[in-house]
Amino acid sequence: MCFSQTRKRPWHLKSTSNPDRAGPLQKKDFGDNELGSSGLSSCMHQSFVLVSISALINCHPELLIRIFETPFFYIYRQNWNEERSVTVQLTDEEKRMEAGEYGPGTQRAMELLVKYGDSFEAKLFAPISYGHISYDFCPEEFWNLMTEGVGKTLHRVTTHPSYSPEVWKKWGLSLADNWADEHQRKLKRFLELGWLRTETCAEYLLGIMPRKGDIVSMGGSCMQVANNSLFGARVDRIGVLMSLAAAVCGRTPLMGLLLPENRYASHMVELEDLDVSEWTITHYHCLGYYIGDQVPGFKPVVLNGLPRNLPFDFARALVISMPTSGSVTLGHIVGTTPEAPTLEAALGGKQPEQVIRVGKGEMTRTWERLNVWDDDVVEHVAFGCPHATIDEIGRIASLVEGKKLKSSMLIGSSAPVEALARRQGWADIIEKAGGHFQPVCPSITNPFTRPDIAGENQARSAATDSARSAHYLATVSGVKVFFGTEEECVNSAISGKWKGEIPRWK
Amino acid sequence: MEIRAHMVSAGKAEGEAVVYKGPFSFLGDLDPATGKVPVPRHKLEGQVLANKVFVFTTGKGSSGGDFAAWIAKKNGNAPAAMICLESEPVLSGAVIVTGIPTVDKPDKDVFELIQPGDHVKVDATKGTIEVVGK
Description:
heterodimer; A: alpha/beta; 4 domains; five-stranded parallel β-sheet; globular; B: 134 residues; 21% helix
């Protein structure tokens, strides 16, 4: 465990321009002793300056930081930073959090956020419009450490897909009970905090979405990339545990994709000799998975040459597949996404660092790579990665109407979308055929394929139309995976056999 | 030989090097129950990362990486230390939360200087990597 109860830190900005500081923080950087009287007066001075100016002109401290970045303040900052090392500048409220005034959970969360912000040389924390976390996807020990003594938060917090052990048990999944108690304890605490039980990786389908420019902290790389790319929210890449710390404190380090200058694409993707006019969602999943593998780090990427106003489902499939094979957290699509009205706007007027060309060969190899199977027996079919839209459920219902499924079928969807599907009569059609709905992650915690949930009833092979799902079913559950179109997947659930084919690219 | 690097997560550890010139995710690329790489067709498929010094390029993949790292660490199946070219937020969060000593931005070419099987000492707090050899 790495929660320091004793660490004191000076409230300093750190010089990022000093080449000697390329190394790590030194022990002396943290000690109280080194913070002599001159250091103390100096740090109080800068703290006072920032807070006073910010209060006087009623602006967000971020704006002040920008002012401090100007050449006029350069010399001032040099003096200021002489003996500094720790980077994140805390407000009085944040100092109270770190000092434990809001209880041990908030204190631990703030300590983690400070270490995290320091490692990226962030200068400030930004208040979040809302937070998105995962309570089921969080070890209970960590959940308890972070939420101990935390009261109701002023900001909204929502949650990622959750578990349903009581339902899993009804489905005959023999190890479901192992998950029940921990789930119940965490859920109880989640509701005590006044947080919203959205239980989905596609909250925008519930009408809960950030506006363009809103700063949001989100666990779940598919949430991050979708809200960043499709709505223009400012969401940085962050892990699910660290996002719980951010939700508890209502703060996230101001860094990475929260800063407008980091949101321009550095990598550009162009399609070569590919006609996309007959592409399905699955084709866009495949393209996104290839791109994610090609872009180094989590550099923003722009796709040029796709039809303008790409349908939402296609755009979503494309961007959410990228952080599976790589770390892309912002994917602009020229003519479709809000920060890419033109290629120039997405690139910020600069030349791309790298142009990635995708042709028939790349698409074929990616499609083949996502298929990991030997015989053609399909024991399970997983839909809803990311959580299904009402249109997707409607299409699946029309394909299975009057049929009986040989394989088990799980559609990951939020409860409100499932409720709408029920009102349409589609949920009943799918359930009558043998399919199931759950607000679970059908990829990472698919109860049918996870040996630690299904026990001896584990499905050993699964078909999916999502590259993200294919990736995690193979790697987390260790089952054989068939990757193909929605129609191929539904047909395989009906016949129990895979007849999918590599597309003939045009 | 000593290589200097930037601290991502404090602490020090040493062990046998496993080298992979590509990105890594705790979720998917490391089986927390065995400490091995479970990915079919991966260059490191079947190799043990538990208690090794893992050298790679950067993080990638799901934001559940820190969750997976926590489980691996609790099972004693996390790498002893990690060295990468440039960290990214999910990886940094994972190693900070679990306390795995980790450095990035090494000042020399670690893929040239560290061979698989070398004994490597990482002092993340000081920002140093020492290659002791086999």
